[in-house]
Write a structure and sequence with these properties.
428 residues; alpha+beta; Beta-lactamase; Methane Monooxygenase Hydroxylase, Chain G, domain 1; 2 domains; 13 strands
Length: 428
């Protein structure tokens, strides 16, 4: 019999309580701040006393040049607080961020697109979550990878490295696949947690192989389109003007040796705006399982609403109830302290900031490197979304304290108290 530390058992029990709830629901403006529009919607059901504190937290971060702009969306059972802040950049004449501004969602792509696509194919019997990676990709055999399962990829317990090497230079999805298949594991699959983009690059390629459609096409046809996520998708410049998209990076003309050197002097003209920030995904071509989705806060809110609705929104079923459960409840192998669903983060080190101090273990979500959060609490039937371009202009800003502050304020506005949080955490 395998023994677990008591704190791990308590965390798993708290997360299980969250699973039951999920199934049951089957200081002044900074200098460069744009004039703030009226909140999109404020309704009973949220503690409006917290709204000014949320505004202040984001405005302070803008004033400290931790991010030039953002959109925040908080929702609880139909009550909504949504606000846009700041500008596209720190230049005083930059466009103001609006609730409709499109952002590079970075690793939110993993839970908005890749994981639900895999789960949809599993619902149809076309992917076996317990099958091995090499059952679908025999070319990936060797290097200790033969025991990796699809579940291991989804929970970041494959033992693969965090990312693909950039050198020697390569480009294209086929090259990415060959590189991923050439990696050796550093730990036995199922025995160790390491957040890895390689896992989700392979999952995106699995969706393409099994469905016969590239990941961006599959996600558009099966998730974004039916869900009414009108401004969400990969390769946004095919359908949206660059001026509607928040920029993520200024590229120096002499940046050839940097991670963004591939776009120095290119068509981006020294600015990443509508071109994916993740350099590995750019090499692949802009569509990958690890990143590449661009979206709005309102679209992400529709996705969250669908999950709290047990997979259905506005009478349209997107995911089956079991897929919703798998996505947002603990599926990590026994003995793994970092608790993950088949996509969502529940209680790994990456969850501590966005969860704040009040949302319980059993709430779940994900973050994105560009400055994005989706966090959902089935217990209070609340969620919040933060989209920002904190990486502008040079990828040096730290917004982690802001994440903690917003997570706590969102929980308070949704009616969670410190006592309730302790009660959730201690629930058997």
């Amino acid at each position: 019999m395998r023994l677990y530390p008591m704190n791990t058992l308590l965390r798993r029990q708290a997360a299980l309580a969250g699973a039951c709830l999920l199934l049951a629901g089957c200081a002044g403006l900074p200098e460069n701040a744009a004039p703030k529009p009226a909140p999109a919607s404020v309704q009973a059901g949220l503690d409006s006393a917290r709204f000014a504190q949320i505004d202040s937290a984001i405005d302070e971060a803008i004033g400290e040049r931790r991010l030039p702009g953002a959109v925040f969306h908080l929702e609880r059972d139909g009550a909504v607080y949504e606000q846009a802040y700041g500008r596209f950049s720190y230049e005083p004449d930059a466009a103001a961020v609006t609730p409709g501004t499109v952002f590079d969602a970075a690793s939110l792509s993993k839970v908005l697109s890749t994981a639900p696509s895999v789960l949809l194919l599993a619902e149809e019997g076309r992917i076996d979550l317990d099958a091995r990676l090499v059952d679908y990709f025999p070319e990936c055999a060797g290097g200790g990878k033969d025991a990796i399962t699809i579940r291991h990829l989804l929970t970041h317990t494959s033992g693969l490295a965090a990312g693909l090497p950039a050198k020697p230079a390569w480009s294209g999805d086929d090259a990415a696949h060959a590189l991923a298949c050439a990696q050796a594991v550093t730990h036995a699959p199922g025995s160790f947690f390491r957040y890895s983009d390689i896992n989700y690059i392979l999952l995106g390629q699995l969706v393409r192989k099994v469905s016969g459609m590239p990941l961006d096409v599959f996600a558009q046809e099966r998730i974004f389109g039916p869900l009414g996520m009108r401004d969400t998708g990969y390769l946004p410049l095919r359908r949206i003007a660059a001026t509607a998209i928040a920029p993520t990076q200024k590229i120096a003309t002499d940046a050839g040796a940097s991670v963004h050197g591939d776009v120095a002097g290119g068509p981006a003209r020294g600015l990443l705006q509508g071109v994916v920030h993740d350099p590995t995904v750019r090499r692949i071509g802009g569509v990958a399982g690890s990143a590449g989705v661009f979206t709005t806060a309102r679209d992400v809110a529709r996705f969250a609403r669908m999950l709290l609705g047990g997979g259905t929104l506005d009478g349209v079923r997107i995911l089956g109830p079991d897929s919703v459960r798998l996505l947002g409840t603990v599926q990590s192998p026994p003995g793994i302290a970092a608790l993950r669903g088949l996509g969502m983060d529940i209680d790994s080190p990456y969850a501590l900031r966005p969860r704040g101090s009040l949302y319980p273990v059993g709430s779940f979500g994900h973050t994105g490197f560009t400055g994005c959060i989706l966090w959902i609490d089935p217990g209070s039937r609340s969620f919040y979304v933060l989209l920002s371009n904190r990486v502008y202009p040079d990828d040096k800003a730290n917004v982690l304290p802001l994440y903690t502050r917003l997570g706590t304020l969102a929980a308070q506005a949704s009616g969670l108290s410190e006592l309730e949080a302790k009660t959730h955490a201690a629930a058997p």
